[in-house]
Amino acid sequence: MINEFKNLLKTKILLFDGAMGTMIQTYKLNEADYRGRRFADHPGQLMGANDLLCLTQPEIIEKIHTDYLQAGADIIETNTFNANGISMRDYDLVDLVYEINYQAAQIARKAARKITDSNPSKPRFVAGSLGPTNATLSLSPDVNNPAYRAVEWEEMVEAYYQQVCGLVD
Prior knowledge:
Layout: H1 2-11, H2 20-25, H3 31-35, H4 53-56, H5 58-70, E1 75-77, H6 97-118, E2 125-127, H7 153-168
Parallel strand pairs: 1-2
């Protein structure tokens, strides 16, 4: 697969998909949609946790991937832009980072495989999406304590490590 990808890069420009979050917004999902059955009793608000939709609304995520592929994208990105242990703290979903990333990769692979199977002369690929966190290592969030860091380097490494493990497995 990697050799096929490299050879394609030598012969043509490959197109990525577009913005996942923007496409999710077109579905006008509400809090109950984000929660699904599994998270009906979750203590905090989940609306806006787009990555969680890989678990609660996988058919929507697969449809978005399929739409981008049918529109001509060669590469789709997983719905995991914020699915790291630091960003997921806001939703109390840190324990689900691996599962969210794993399921996101499975959903994207399924969509890419379906479209590739329908037209084997145009293979489609999946890229894992790793976005920034909502924390910074270089600036203090406390103007009165410039040396303070809300996140340490090791926490950042672990957050991305768990995310990548889910995507790769």
